[in-house]
Design brief:
single chain; alpha+beta; Hypothetical protein af1432; Beta Polymerase, domain 2; five-stranded mixed β-sheet; 19 strands; 50% helix; 15% strand; elongated; binds manganese (II) ion
C-alpha cells in the first residue's frame, strides 16, 4: 500500500469515494513532512464530519469543495496551516462548528485564517460601478490581517467558478461579474497569474456565453492551421539555443481567451489581428542568460521596433519580471517571446503566494504580517529604478491601509480615514445629511454619534428636519470635510440668527419711539446705512443682534431724533421662544427656565444672555441700563432647559440612588450630580436637571421633598 492509501484507510467509515483526497495527499507528500500531512488529515476528518449530509448544487458531497480548494493551494506549495484552513474554510459559515472549536483542535493560526475567510464571506458586493469595485477590492484587502486568507478566498472562488454550471442562470451572471470585477483584479494585484487567468476566462465564459463560444471556436480553428508554423519556429529556436550551449525550457504559449477578447474590445482589433500572434516562453537558469537568449532570438528573427520591454531591470508593480520582445516570424507574422528565469516564472505564476511556499529548511517563524512585509520590501527593492511612489500607492496602501471601507444603506461603499466616526460618514454622504444628523445605526444597532467605524460595517444616519450640527462634534470628527462643514454652519447660522434678532430688536426700539421698520421705509434705511458706514441692511441687523450696536440708539438715528430727545420707556418686551439659536443664550449663573421673571443683557459679540431677575450677578450689570432689554417667555416653549437643585438628605446608604430615581421618574434627565458636603448626619447633594419650565421643576421638587430621607430642598441661585 502506498502512503496515500495508508492514510485513506485510516479514515473512519472507510469512504468509498475519496473526493479528491488521494490526489491532495499525493501533492502534499511531494513537499510536506508526514507530521504536517497528518494534521491536515485531521482537518479533513473534522470538516467531513461537519459537512456530513450536505451536498453541492452539483449533487457532489460538500467536502469535495474544500478539498478542491486545498488542492489549488497545494499546487502552489502553500504551508500546512493554509491547507488546513482551506479544508475548514466553510465549516463556520455552513455548519454548527465554531471558531473556538477549530482553535482548540488546530491552533490559533488555522482558526484565525478560517475566521478571516468567514468574515470576507459576510460582505457582499452589489454595485456595478467601477469605482465601487475598486473600493470593494480595497475593503477586502483591508479586512484581512493575513494574505493567506485572500489566497484561500481566491482558491474558493476559483473552484466555485469551475463548478458554476450547476447554478441557476441569474446567479451565474452575478457571480461571474463579481469574479471579473473583484477577484480577478485582486489576483492580478497580488501577482498570482495562475488564478487571474483562470478566473478571467471563467468569468468571461459565464458573463458572455455567446461571445465566449464564438471566440473559442475561432481560436481552435486558427490553432489547427498554425500547428505547422509553431512546430517550425520551436525547432529553429531550440537549434539556435543549443548551438550556443544554452539549456532552456521552451514553451509554446496560448493566450487566454479573456485577454484576446479585451484586446479586441479595447483596441478595436479584428479577431485575425489578435489570434495570429504566436507566443513563446523561454525559461533559463539565470538573469545573464536571459539577455544572452535575447541576443540569440534577435539574431534569428528580425525584432519589431518599439516592442522590446525589459521587465527584468524594471519589474511590473506586482513583482512580475520577464524580457518581452516581438519578432517577425518566418512568414512575417508576429512572434511574441517572453524570456525569464525559473525563479521569475514561479513568481509570475504565484506572486505573493510564492512567499508562503513551504520550504523544508525554513526554520524562521516569521508572522504572516512579517512575510507580507518581506514581500513588499522585496517588491520595492525591485521597483527601486522606477517610480516608487506609484508602487507604494498601488500595493502598500492596499495591504496596510490607512483607510476603512463601510457600506451605505444602499450598499454603496464609502472610503473613510481610519478612526472616522458616524458624523464623518454623514458628512461624506452629503453636507445636508451631516448637518441634520441626530443619531446613527451601525449594522442596524443604534450607536453614539462619536463611535468610530470599522471596515465592512453598514452605516445608516438618522436625520431630523430642523436639526443642527453640534459644536461639540468638532472634538471627535476626523475628516476635513466634516470639520469645515460644521464650522461653516456655525458661522452662517450665527449671522442669520443674529440678523433675525437684530431686526426684531430694532423694530422694537422703533415702536418705542412710535415708529416701526415699515414706517421708516427702504429709502431712509438705505441712506442711514450709508451714513453708518455699513454695506447692507443685513449687516446692520447682525451688528444689533450681536450687541455690537445698540438698538435704541440706532432707532433714534434712523428717525433723526436727538440723543436726549423724548422717548417713552420701553413697554413691550422681546418674546423669547427658545428657538433663536446661538444669539440667545441662558446664563449659567442662574439657569433661567420658562416661567421665571427674566431680563436680557446685550453682550457684545454674543447676542442676548438671559438672566433671572433675582440673579446675584445682575447688580454689576445694572450700571449699563442701555444694554438691558426687557424680555418675556413665549406661551408654550417646547424645549428642555437646565436647572439646578440642592438636596439635603439623611446620611443613609442608597439615598442618592433613591433621589435620582424619583427625579428620573418625574420625566427629567439628570445631567450631573455632585456631592457638595458629607456630614455625620446629612448629605448635601446638587443635581443639574433638564426641565421644561417652572411648573415641571416645582413638581419634581415637591416629589423629592416628600421623600422620607430628604431634609431640605432648594433651587440654586448663585
Ligand atoms: Mn467555499
Amino acid at each position: 500500500m502506498d502512503y496515500a492509501a495508508t492514510l485513506l484507510a485510516k479514515l473512519p467509515g472507510a469512504p468509498k469515494r475519496d473526493h479528491g483526497l488521494r490526489r491532495l495527499i499525493e501533492t502534499l507528500e511531494s513537499y510536506l513532512q508526514s507530521e504536517q500531512i497528518e494534521n491536515i488529515m485531521q482537518a479533513y476528518e473534522f470538516g467531513a464530519a461537519a459537512h456530513d449530509g450536505q451536498t453541492r448544487m452539483s449533487g457532489e458531497p460538500y467536502i469535495s469543495h474544500p478539498v478542491a480548494v486545498a488542492q489549488e493551494l497545494a499546487d502552489m506549495r502553500l504551508d500546512s496551516q493554509a491547507i488546513s484552513a482551506a479544508i475548514l474554510h466553510d465549516v463556520v459559515e455552513d455548519t454548527s462548528a465554531s471558531i473556538a472549536e477549530i482553535e482548540d483542535r488546530f491552533g490559533t493560526e488555522v482558526a484565525q485564517l478560517v475566521d478571516g475567510v468567514s468574515k470576507l464571506d459576510q460582505i457582499q458586493f452589489h454595485s456595478r460601478a467601477e469605482a465601487q469595485a475598486e473600493s470593494f477590492r480595497k475593503m477586502m484587502l483591508a479586512m484581512i490581517g493575513d494574505i493567506r486568507v485572500i489566497l484561500v478566498k481566491l482558491a474558493d472562488r476559483l473552484h466555485n467558478m469551475q463548478t458554476l454550471d450547476a447554478m441557476p442562470a441569474d446567479k451565474k451572471t452575478r457571480i461571474a461579474r463579481e469574479t471579473l470585477d473583484v477577484y480577478a483584479p485582486i489576483a492580478n494585484r497580488l501577482g498570482i497569474n495562475r488564478f487571474k487567468v483562470e478566473l478571467e476566462d471563467l468569468g468571461f465564459r459565464y458573463l458572455h456565453p455567446f461571445r465566449y463560444r464564438v471566440l473559442e471556436k475561432a481560436l481552435r480553428r486558427s490553432r489547427g492551421s498554425q500547428r505547422q508554423m509553431v512546430k517550425r519556429v520551436s525547432e529553429e529556436l531550440k537549434a539556435a539555443l543549443a548551438a550556443e550551449g544554452i539549456e532552456a525550457e521552451l514553451i509554446g504559449r496560448e493566450k487566454h481567451l479573456y485577454s484576446i477578447y479585451k484586446k479586441m474590445a479595447e483596441k478595436r482589433r479584428t479577431l485575425a489581428d489578435v489570434v495570429d500572434v504566436f507566443g513563446f516562453r523561454i525559461i533559463v537558469d539565470d538573469v545573464s542568460t536571459c539577455y544572452q537568449v535575447l541576443g540569440i532570438v534577435h539574431a534569428l528573427y528580425k525584432p519589431m521596433p518599439g516592442r522590446f520591454k525589459d521587465y527584468v531591470a524594471i519589474p511590473r508593480i506586482n513583482g512580475y519580471q520577464s524580457l518581452h520582445t516581438t519578432l517577425f516570424g518566418p512568414k512575417g507574422q508576429p512572434l511574441e517571446v517572453q524570456i525569464r528565469t525559473h525563479n521569475m516564472d514561479r513568481v509570475a505564476e504565484s506572486g505573493v503566494a510564492s512567499h508562503w511556499q513551504y520550504k523544508a529548511e525554513d526554520k524562521s517563524d516569521a508572522t504572516p504580517q512579517r512575510r507580507a512585509r518581506d514581500w513588499l520590501a522585496n517588491l520595492s527593492e525591485l521597483q527601486r529604478t522606477e517610480t516608487p511612489e506609484e508602487f507604494l500607492e498601488s500595493v502598500k496602501v492596499d495591504l496596510f491601509p490607512d483607510k476603512i471601507y463601510v457600506f451605505t444603506p444602499k450598499g454603496d461603499i464609502m472610503p473613510l480615514p481610519k478612526g472616522a466616526t458616524t458624523v464623518d460618514f454623514a458628512y461624506a454622504v452629503h453636507t445636508d445629511i451631516g448637518n441634520r444628523c441626530v443619531a446613527a445605526k451601525v449594522d442596524r444597532k443604534l450607536v453614539p454619534l462619536r463611535s468610530q467605524l470599522q471596515n465592512g460595517q453598514s452605516v445608516e444616519i438618522v436625520t431630523r428636519r430642523g436639526a443642527k450640527p453640534n459644536p461639540n462634534w468638532l472634538t471627535f470628527v476626523r475628516t476635513a470635510k466634516a470639520r469645515t462643514a460644521i464650522r461653516h454652519y456655525m458661522k452662517t447660522m450665527r449671522s442669520s440668527e443674529s440678523a433675525d434678532l437684530g431686526k426684531r430688536l430694532l423694530d422694537q426700539s422703533l415702536k418705542d419711539l412710535g415708529s416701526s421698520l415699515r414706517k421708516v421705509g427702504k429709502v431712509r434705511m438705505k441712506t442711514a446705512i450709508e451714513e453708518l458706514g455699513n454695506s447692507d441692511v443685513t449687516k446692520l441687523f447682525e451688528q444689533i443682534g450681536l450687541g455690537e450696536r445698540l438698538a435704541p440708539l440706532t432707532a433714534r438715528f434712523l428717525l433723526g431724533v436727538n440723543e436726549d430727545g423724548e422717548s417713552e420707556p420701553s413697554t413691550a418686551s422681546l418674546v423669547i421662544a427658545g428657538t433663536e439659536g446661538m444669539v440667545v443664550s441662558y446664563a449659567r449663573c442662574c439657569l433661567p427656565i420658562p416661567g421665571d421673571e427674566v431680563m436680557g443683557y446685550l453682550s457684545s459679540g454674543r447676542g442676548i444672555v438671559i438672566h433671572r431677575n433675582n440673579c446675584g450677578n445682575l447688580a454689576t450689570f445694572r450700571k449699563q441700563p442701555e444694554k438691558w432689554i426687557s424680555v418675556s417667555w413665549e406661551e408654550n416653549v417646547d424645549l428642555e432647559f437646565s436647572s439646578q437643585i440642592q438636596v439635603d438628605t439623611q446620611n443613609k446608604p442608597g439615598v442618592l440612588a433613591e433621589v435620582a430615581a424619583t427625579i428620573a421618574d418625574s420625566d427629567s434627565n439628570i445631567e450631573q450630580v455632585s456631592v457638595l458636603g458629607r456630614h455625620e448626619d446629612c448629605y448635601v447633594l446638587s443635581f443639574l436637571l433638564q426641565v421644561r419650565d417652572r411648573d415641571h421643576l416645582a413638581k419634581i421638587m415637591r416629589r423629592v421633598r416628600n421623600m422620607s430621607n430628604v431634609l431640605r430642598i432648594s433651587r440654586d441661585c448663585a
